[in-house]
Amino acid sequence: MASITAGMVKDLREKTGAGMMDCKAALTETGGDIESAVDWLRKKGLSKAAKKSGRVAAEGLVAAAASAARGVLVEVNSETDFVARNEDFQALVRTIADVALKTGAVDAEQLRAQSYPGGGTVAEAIASAVATIGENLTLRRAATVEVGQGVVGFYVHGAVTNGLGKIAVLVALESTGDQAALSSLARMIALHVAAASPLALDASGLDPALVERERSVLREKNAGKPPHVLDKIVESGLKSYYKEVSLADQISIHAEHGDKTIRQVLEEAQKSVGAPVRLAGALRYAIGEGIERQEADFASEVAAAAKGQ
User: How many domains does the chain have?
Assistant: First the structure.
């Protein structure tokens, strides 16, 4: 049986909001598997969490840049948050984003091979910065979003300077309508995405495995009810789930929209834009999401250092 540590219990509590003893019991029942423990708690009605990605751990910056109908997001990781305030590091990340925007590089691997202003490749520029800044730096990911007609807008949360921060979002709107009105709308939706963190544009874009997992949790949580009643409960629960995680079905965070969904906001915006508007894409990067931090055991470090003397 896996050893259940205090750190594992702490992580599960942060993910679910469940009590300490309930978290320990869940981990014990699932052999220490965090995701299975989340489901176990939900099935017992002890957790309200519908989803949560891995703990955000890595440092560095995410960058967003857009020009007309193309936008890019780039994440460059560093070892410490201090580096994110380094002007040389900021210039590096900003330039990498500019290269991505100019070339339309579709991922980090392709971007590393692109020419960097002043000579060499992006990969070589990063290697050079490692020597200068004194920390390991990694171009973790990059993505490009484009539309044939319309705009790509962006929003950066926790910005340390223009286009660089802790969370960056792109939103692509396809339309032949007024560009200024579209740009304003795209930025407004991007701010919503930064706050609401949807998993897909709409329900059809959700990972089938996630939907099936949600369906399974709903069935087990309501086990014992008559089949026809259970089916209705599950379908109702899935509709609620879609409203939580699909962008088009989420209630806008902006007060001026009242209780309207993003889908309804887009439909109403057609009047001011002067043409139909289609939500063509949305992308959200948060610095270090999904990377587990190696938490230092200070006492162990001191003991190890003492042995090495």
Answer: 2
Higher pLDDT: 186 or 127? It is 186
Return the DSSP state at 291. Answer: P
285 forms beta bridges with 168
**The two structure tokens encoding residue 58:** 């890595």
Rounded CA separation 63/295 (Å): 27
> Of 27, 49, 71, which closes a domain?
49
14/63 same-domain check: no
Using CB atoms within 10 Å of the CB of residue 193, give its burial: 0 to 12 exposed, 13 to 18 middle, 19+ buried.
buried
DSSP state of 166: S
Residue 195's Cα: distance from chain center in Å?
10
Look up the pTM and report it. 0.74
The domain in which residue 126 lies consists of 59-195+275-286
- What pLDDT, in 10s, does the model give residues 259-277? 999 999 999 999 999 999 9
CA separation for the pair 62, 71 (Å, rounded): 13
CATH number at residue 139: 3.30.479.20
Is residue 145 included in any domain, yes or no?
Answer: yes
Q: At what angle do helices 208-221 and 227-245 cross, to 10 degrees?
A: 130
Please calculate the CA angle 235-201-37 and round it to the nearest 5 degrees: 55
- Indicate if 139 and 66 belong to the same structural domain: yes
